[in-house]
Amino acid sequence: MVIYYGCRHCGKELGVLQHTEMDITLRFLELLEEKDLAEMIVSEKDGYFRLEVICEYCQQALDMHPDYHELDHFLQ
Ligand SMILES: [Zn+2]
């Protein structure tokens, strides 16, 4: 099982998780995100998965401009 993870806002690729790293990483993400992880993981073709998170840059932008977050939801 391989999971690519990237920013859901700007689409920036942040890395790739191998199965062996999953336990540690998911535990780490649980501390950051209270959202259901199932909502964050998108299944892609060929058995790959994509984990959608927020990158450092977008997090900073959201912190400075909370309105962007509402706009993003509106566009979805
Ligand atoms: Zn981003």
From TrEMBL:
It comes from the Bacteria. Pfam families: Fin (PF10955). GO terms for biological process: regulation of gene expression. This is Anti-sigma-F factor Fin. It comes from Oceanobacillus oncorhynchi.
